[in-house]
Amino acid sequence: MSSDTTGVLPREGVAVSGVRAALLQKRTRLGEHAYTVVRWGGAAVFAAVVVALLISVAGSSSQALTRSGVGFLWSGTWNPAAGEYGAGILVVGTLLTTAVAMVIVVPIGLGTAAFLSELAPGWLAGPLSTLIGLLAAVPSIVVGLWGLIVLTPIFANQVEPFLASMPLLGWLFRGEAYGPSVLLASVVLAVMTLPTMVALSRTALAAVPVADREAALALGATRWQAVRKAVIPAARSGIQAAVTLAVGRAMGESIAVAMVIGNRPALPTSLTAPGATLGSAIVNQFAEASPGLGTSSVIALGAVLLLLTVAVNAGGQALLRSGGGHRAGTAGALR
Amino acid sequence: MSGDPIARPEPLSLVAEQRAAANTAASALTHGHPSSATPPAVTLEGVQVSFGDHVAVRNVTLAIPARQVTALIGPSGCGKTTLLRAINRLHDHTGGSVEGSIKLGDIDVYGADTRPELIRRRIGMVFQRPNPFPAMSVFENVVSGLRFNGVRGRALLRDAAESALHHAALWDTVKDRLNQPAVGLSGGQQQRLCIARALAVEPEVLLMDEPCSALDPIATAKIENLITRLAADVTIVLVTHNMFQAARVSDQAAVFLLGEDRVGELVEAGATDELFHEPKNPRTRDYVAGRVG
Amino acid sequence: MTVASALSRRDLVRAAAQRSLTRRRITGRLAQALCAVAAVASVAPLVALLYYTISRGAQVLSWSFLVNAPTPPGIPGGGISTAITGSAEIVGLALVIAIPIALLAALFLFERSGRLAAALRFSADVLAGVPSIIIGIFAYALLVLPLHAFSNLAAAFALAVLMLPIMIRADEEAMRTIALDLWEAGIALGARRGRVARSVVLRGALPDLVTGNLLAIARAVGETAPLLFTLATPVAAMTLLIYTDGTQAFPIAQETAWGTALVLLAFVLLLSVAAKIAAWRISRRAR
């Protein structure tokens, strides 16, 4: 559709007198121009917001970044008292909590999506997905409060000692069971990313044509073999997008993580040890940051987080857009 | 066998006659006895297939002879595809119901201790639109059924794939791109790949649901030639709304028409040449002459 | 291929299919059971969250809790009235900023195809995934730092930026699904574009627009991180109050946090359910 439409005449203009028609046409052109202007205006304001966001985050963190250079990214120390600022440990903490959250949420989310899309009867699948959708609406602060007050004692007294006593995997959870920890933060992140994971994977599975399922069944596959070998592989790009967008969400969550991770900017020695992420550090350090370099360094953490999440989300969006294109070959070949 | 399928259609009865003559000669050669003497591969008795309250097709009694091509013909909406999906138990998988008796040899397809997975292995299916698994290569597609059925061993899979692709007249086309995505093939090639995939699990019966409806005339001709050749090893049930196709490739035909209450029913069945040449039922005559449907 | 090898292969496949069937069926049952367990595990957090928020929150919830102003620590009888009115004010202001911009930008996307629109659409989708804390930093750097003052306006700006991409995409989607043929009919009749947009598209898409915007509002009401950088005192918004009171070790402060969480959760879930019902009614009417 072109935006040049001032040539379109109002139909009623034909019936009225010449003078009125000319007047009407003039008003029409004016209105049309005004409409074009505001429409472009809306888009321009939005574009300006995006650009301003990038500029102001970059600008406000420039003091810290010029002082530490690119080394800010991997310098391991975050010790404002000594005037040492580096994002390294926090980047590791962010990636670690996100990875553990994904270990939890990907199998559960995918299993749930498969259950809803392939296995459950309609009367059950509908209400269940509505409930899981409602979880997405729960504010992160409420999840954080629940994690802090309800889950922390359970983790300190039951979950963490149990995990530490496990054979083979126990070493991952060794050390004092303290409650607030990388593990607890990951569980809270898993809860928060679960609706994204379920909804997007379910959409991807549902988009696989019935013909793929029936092809497998007609060869003698069991229902589960059809799901596992025909449906899930065909939905792969959509599922990858779901995971990627869940990763983006998990990396960027700050307030709930800050409430349950223990906020110790050091390399965690085990999953039950306290840690810190970029987001949790921003939440905790911001109020106490000294004006100037301190504040600029905290904002620089935000710049690093912005880079990470934008890269991940752009990848996820690209995957979403590419999804469903795999059968283009068939469509083209049929003619 | 049946001349150039793209050429202007000859009168149906003539096409069927040529086809019947050719087939009698061929089966006499390969089997050493007239095909009518073999026991039926699939027997349907008083079969009625429904979706919930809606009956799609009813009262079907039909013997499908082994190692021949049986065509189910009739206008669309008279339950041919539904009936076909009842034979390999896809229909009840998707929530439909089937009454009456369907037997594969001596086995009751809907028997209490009959496993649908085993039935579907023995009764293969080819669908209207080519549906190779999009995430799999050509090779993986052909052996997918064997893997589903627990067949292991690289050499074995490789041999089976080659043999199935030979049977589907696709080996020479794809032997150098076995590891490329199946969706890169043309539509006709994809459909032959689906036939190879179905043949690889060594079915006794192959159900084909308008397998050429998404293909161009040249690809259609190739599939039709393939069907007549496959009948030497496999019993084929072909759903088609194209009477010329039925006349070209089938030995037996069964005509389905809509009854007065909009329910599909079997009107007449018999040798294809007789059915087209001298139909017994007046409704068949009208249909064959192009006056209904 | 010889006849013998074909026969033996047929026997082999038949035997393998029969032999493996029990294993395949058990594996399938097991996997299906695991999927069902996963589904239960997916619903469990919501149930637990609702249970704790309601049972803890209900203990403190009362009329005076809603209408009284907060009291200094240690003095009983305090409420959360300032947080409720503060949240309402901030979100209201954010809506005044975001709704018109989003609507116009969506109209722009609706009418244009091509690179510019695709780029704008893509940046909206990516911006929707930008962590809210970064949007808080943005508002801080743009409005708080230069003016040397925390303000509801800065907070509202942050929430507006947060809602913009969600609203734009929801609005555009609403216009597309409901109004494309109406739009073309309007243009074909020779109506002015601006008028078509106002009367036909917007009216036709109104129910969908409401649904999408309700969801965006629900998201904004529950945000905390952006307010951290833009508000001077925690009692100025519900989410901030939950954060500061919830992280204190005093039982009274935690009770206030649960009470506020219940009020917030009820409001947000109400908005989401309203949006769901609106969407459901629309889809029913369309059928």
Would you write up a description of this structure?
The complex is a heterotrimer of chains A (335), B (293) and C (287). Chain A has helices spanning 18-60, 62-68, 88-119, 122-137, 140-164, 182-206, 210-218, 223-234, 236-252, 255-260, 278-286, 293-322, 328-333. Chain A folds into two domains: 11-60; 70-325, MetI-like (MetI-like fold, Orthogonal Bundle). The two termini of chain A are 28 Å apart. Chain A is 71% helix and 0% strand. Chain B is 40% helix and 24% strand. In chain B, α5 packs parallel to α8 (187-200). The longest helix of chain B is centred in the N-terminal third of the chain and has 20 residues, at 12-31. Chain C has 287 residues and is an all-alpha fold. Chain C has a single domain (63-67, 79-286), classed as MetI-like (MetI-like fold, Orthogonal Bundle). Chains in contact: A-B, A-C, B-C. Chains A and C meet through α1, α3, α4, α5 and α6 of A and α1, α3, α4, α5 and α6 of C.
Outline the fold blueprint:
The complex is a heterotrimer of chains A (335), B (293) and C (287).
Chain A: H1 18-60, H2 62-68, H3 88-119, H4 122-137, H5 140-164, H6 182-206, H7 210-218, H8 223-234, H9 236-252, H10 255-260, H11 278-286, H12 293-322, H13 328-333
Chain B: H1 12-31, E1 40-51, E2 54-65, E3 69-73, H2 80-87, H3 90-93, E4 97-104, E5 107-108, H4 116-122, E6 123-126, H5 138-148, H6 154-167, H7 171-174, H8 187-200, E7 205-209, H9 217-230, E8 235-240, H10 243-249, E9 252-258, E10 264-271, H11 272-277, H12 282-288
Parallel strand pairs in B: 2-10, 3-8, 3-9, 6-7, 7-8
Antiparallel strand pairs in B: 1-2, 1-4, 4-5, 9-10
Chain C: H1 3-60, H2 63-67, H3 81-111, H4 115-128, H5 132-147, H6 152-188, H7 193-221, H8 225-228, H9 238-246, H10 251-286
Name its key features.
heterotrimer; A: 335 residues; mainly alpha; MetI-like fold; 2 domains; 13 helices; flat; disordered N terminus; disordered C terminus; B: 293 residues; alpha/beta; Rossmann fold; ten-stranded mixed beta sheet; 10 strands
